[in-house]
């Protein structure tokens, strides 16, 4: 099958599965990864130690998937129509991150990824 047609089918399936964004890219090193290392060194990961522990996997996908030639990157937008915490006038209200407003998304995103994986096989 033509690679452009295959890419188009994968993107279409990902969107149909419920992802809001999808991209397919060639595997390779990218200079932007240095920003991630700097972000970690500044302590921005907080208590999410797994981000630093597995940083090498983020640098080179072939360490996880030897022989990989492309990656499929999917995203789900967890934004809502509710006003941002910064837009509220009540100074006694706390700020809650947008991702924390709804149910835990890890299970639903995993199900979507499994569905896309099954399609790709």
Give a written overview of the molecule.
This protein has 121 residues and is α+β, with helices and mostly antiparallel strands. 40% of the residues lie in helices and 10% in strands. The chain has a two-stranded antiparallel ribbon. It starts with a helix and ends with a helix. 2% of the residues are buried. The mean pLDDT is 88.
Q: Topology of this protein?
A:
Layout: H1 3-17, E1 21-26, H2 33-41, H3 50-53, H4 55-59, E2 70-75, H5 106-120
Antiparallel strand pairs: 1-2
Nearest-angstrom radius of gyration? 18 Å
SSE order, as H and E? HEHHHEH
Approximately what portion of the residues adopt beta-strand conformation? Answer: 5-15%
Ends apart, CA distance between termini? 14 Å
- SSE class: alpha+beta
Side-by-side strand order of the widest sheet: 1-2
Low-pLDDT stretches are: none
Average pLDDT over all residues:
88
Structural domains: how many:
1
- Largest sheet data: 2 strands, antiparallel
- Number of discrete helical segments: 5
Number of strands: 2
Shape: globular
* Fraction in helix: 25-40%
What does this entry show, briefly?
With about 120 residues, this protein is of the alpha+beta class. The chain has helices at about 5-15, 35-40, 50-55, 55-60, 105-120, and strands at about 20-25, 70-75.
């Amino acid at each position: 099958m033509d690679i452009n047609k295959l890419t188009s089918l994968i993107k279409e399936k990902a969107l149909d599965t419920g992802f809001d964004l999808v991209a397919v890219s060639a595997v390779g090193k990218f200079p932007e990864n240095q920003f991630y290392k700097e972000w970690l060194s500044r302590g921005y990961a907080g208590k999410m130690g797994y981000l630093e522990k597995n940083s090498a996997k983020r640098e080179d996908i072939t360490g996880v998937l030897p022989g990989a030639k492309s990656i499929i990157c999917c995203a789900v937008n967890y934004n809502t129509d509710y006003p941002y915490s910064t837009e509220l006038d009540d100074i006694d209200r706390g700020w809650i991150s947008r991702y924390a407003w709804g149910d835990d998304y890890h299970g639903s995103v995993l199900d979507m990824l499994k569905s896309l994986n099954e399609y790709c096989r």
